[in-house]
Design a protein that fits this description.
Structural class: mainly beta
Largest sheet: 5 strands, antiparallel
Distance between the termini: 39 Å
Radius of gyration: 16 Å
Shape: elongated
Oligomer: single chain
Helix content: under 10%
């Protein structure tokens, strides 16, 4: 199994109703990311890429160093978790992307962030 497949990402999302203003087309979401290193070597996250798509199909790309201001190192078996947020103009959208990482020999690789949905509660019912 390749190193890209041995570092996994899972995401939980939350709608922040108190910070959202639907009348002004402002929907605020938080997402908690868990990055787990299932390999037998240390890895480090260097940068991130996000593709954010709202319910109208409008896409925004976000690139940057690290996550929430850090470039975490993950030992074998370790999970790194962080929480961040996104603001959409619609009550439904999605995010996906990847992390640029390096292994302990400083060889680069990418870990995919599977697509996940951002949805105001009951919007799909």
């Amino acid at each position: 199994m390749s190193l890209e497949q041995q570092v996994t990402v899972s995401v939980d999302t939350f709608y922040l109703g108190a910070q959202s203003e639907p009348a002004e087309h402002r929907y605020v979401f938080a997402y908690c990311v868990n990055i787990t290193n299932h390999s037998d070597q240390q890895v480090q996250l260097l940068s991130r890429y996000w593709q954010i798509t709202d319910g109208n199909g409008k896409q925004t790309e976000v690139r940057g160093d690290g996550v929430i201001g850090v470039q975490p190192q993950l030992q074998p078996g370790e999970t790194y978790s962080y929480t961040s947020g996104a603001v959409l103009e619609t009550p439904l959208g999605s995010m996906q992307g990847y992390y640029e990482m390096i292994d302990q020999a400083r060889q680069p690789f990418r870990t995919a962030i599977p697509m996940f949905r951002l949805a105001m509660p009951n919007i799909l019912n």
